[in-house]
Amino acid sequence: MSFQRTNSITGIEVADDTKITFLDLKRKKAHRYVIFRIDDKEKEVIVEKQGAPWESYDDFTAALPADDCRFAVYDFDFVTEDNCQKSKIFFIAWAPSVSRIRAKMLYATSKERFRHELDGVHYEIQATEPSEMDLQVLIDRAN
After folding, report:
1. Residue 68 lies in a domain
2. CA-to-CA distance for 23 and 27, rounded, in angstroms?
3. Which of 1, 59, 61, 108 is 20 to 30 A from 136, comparing alpha carbons?
4. 72-111 pLDDT, tens per residue?
5. Packing angle, helices 101-117 and 16-28, rounded to 10
């Protein structure tokens, strides 16, 4: 059984292991984060990097390229005002202002289709610079 589906607008597919890796983050807490990139040659979204469960938000943001677009999911653990341990999954569309216009367009036109494949994401953030996805942004959105 294949999970691959083509984005009719861009022709981009979602690789089988991409969805499986997301499910490992969601269900098994196997990863703190997953960074995805669009492979131009294969025309599909693939896993670029997986963060170990103990990695920090700083480790995650440092793993994103400063000059190219990426999709990412981050499993954010926090404690509520009622002292309850919670976890929320954030989808982050990273498109730094210095990235190539072609890359920005490809990621923008593929985002909704790819985001739809990731069932269980709680929040979405579109960021063009690090301050737009600062840890405080996640805290504010999760509460």
Report:
1. yes
2. 6
3. 108
4. 999 999 998 899 999 999 999 999 999 999 999 999 999 9
5. 60
Looking at the 3D structure of the chain, how many domains does it have? 1
Residue 112 sits in which domain range?
13-142
Residue 82 within any structural domain of the chain: yes
- Domain-embedded: residue 131: yes
Assigned token pair, 60? 């995650």
* 31-64 pLDDT tens trace: 999 999 999 888 899 999 999 999 999 999 999 9
User: What's the Cα-to-Cα distance from 9 to each of 12, 113, 119, 135, 138, rounded to whole Å?
Assistant: 8, 9, 21, 33, 30
CATH number at residue 67: 3.40.20.10
Tokens representing 36 are 């995805």
Could you tell me the sign of the dihedral formed by the alpha carbons of 77, 59, 20, 2, in that order? Answer: positive
Is a pLDDT exceeding 60 seen at residue 7?
A: no
Give the pLDDT score at 80: 86
Task: Identify whether 4 is part of a domain.
Answer: no
Tokens of 125: 């953030």
The pLDDT score that the predictor gives to residue 81 is: 86
